Amino acid sequence: MGIADDMKRITENIVASYDMRVKALSDLVADTQKTLKGFAVDRKKMSEEQAKVLADFVADLTKNVGNMLKGFQKDHKAMADALKESLEKGETDRLETFKDMMGNIQKGIKDIEIYVANKLKEFSDEHADMSKELRESLSSYVNEINKGVTKLLNEYSSDMKKAKVAWKGMSKTLKTARKAGVMVGVEEA
């Protein structure tokens, strides 16, 4: 057995291995195509189911929205009618309430006017009393000042009289001293 036989076997092995790989690849391609077809079928089925569910949901939603709108319209009409009736009835009530309120306001204004007039009179009376007290206090203070000034002027007058007597005495003494020949002078400081 030689190299030629070994080469032949290797070649046969390579061809057999190649055939096996081609078959395995062919099986893999077939499986992949089968899986993809299954996905397509499942996707189509799910799409149809979702379309049906969505269509049912939209139909229910449309029905529910229509019912809600009808309910809103009915409620709105009932509220508008009730409001209209209430406003018509309430007009007389509001006028009566307004008259009562205006009466209370006018009474309140009159009470305020009376209160203000009384307070002004109180302030005026207190002002007159304070003015009288201040005049009396000021008069008393002025009298005290006048007494003090009079006393001060009397003391000044008395001091001036004493100074006059002292000056006359000094003048007399100076005259006598000059006649006697005594020299009298004033020293400068």
Q: Which regions contain 5 or more consecutive residues with pLDDT less than 50?
A: none
> Which structural category do the helix and sheet elements fall into?
mainly alpha
Order of helices and strands: H
Taken from the alpha-carbon principal axes, the silhouette is elongated
Distance between the termini: 169 Å
The Rg value, from CA coordinates, equals 67 Å
Largest sheet: none
What portion of residues is helical?
Answer: over 70%
Q: Quickly count the helices.
A: 1
- The percentage of residues in β strands lies in under 5%
What does this protein look like?
This protein is an all-alpha fold and about 190 residues long. It is built from one helix and no strands. The radius of gyration is 67 Å and the shape is elongated. The N and C termini lie far apart (about 170 Å). The relative contact order is 0.02. The model has no long low-confidence stretch (mean pLDDT about 85).
Question: In a nutshell, what does this entry contain?
Answer:
The protein has one helix at residues 3-179. The model has no long low-confidence stretch (mean pLDDT 84). 94% of the residues lie in helices and 0% in strands.
What's the structural blueprint in terms of helices and strands?
Blueprint: H1 3-179
